[in-house]
Specification:
mainly alpha
Length: 106
């Protein structure tokens, strides 16, 4: 399950992707910070994938008769849907930021 950080902006260590490796004007750890951000991104993507697979399995179990609790199936589908939408939104923001960076005049 994806845990949402409600303390975004209260420090680089708590912000996840935003500000990873950059502390008060120093970029000495930027390379390792970027690597940590990529590693965290992979973990988040795998969590979203796990939720999607769990949702698929619960649907198959419901259709095959192994599970009769439709509430848990709907809940698994909702979790998978929201996590995927969040992932796509983060991706879109990153692409938008990349495009803005590339369009900056030198």
């Amino acid at each position: 399950m994806i845990n949402f950080n409600t303390n975004i902006g209260q420090g680089a260590s708590q912000a996840g992707f935003a500000g990873a490796g950059v502390t008060k004007g120093k970029t000495a750890g930027a390379k390792s910070g970027f690597a940590d951000s990529v590693k965290a991104a992979r973990e988040y993507i795998s969590e979203v994938d796990d939720l999607q697979q769990t949702s698929d399995i619960s649907i198959k179990d419901l259709l095959s008769g192994k599970n009769e609790d439709i509430t848990s199936v709907v809940s698994a589908m909702a979790k998978a849907d929201m996590s995927f939408k969040l992932l796509v939104g983060v991706r879109n923001k990153l692409i938008e930021g990349y495009k803005q960076t590339m369009n900056m005049p030198l």
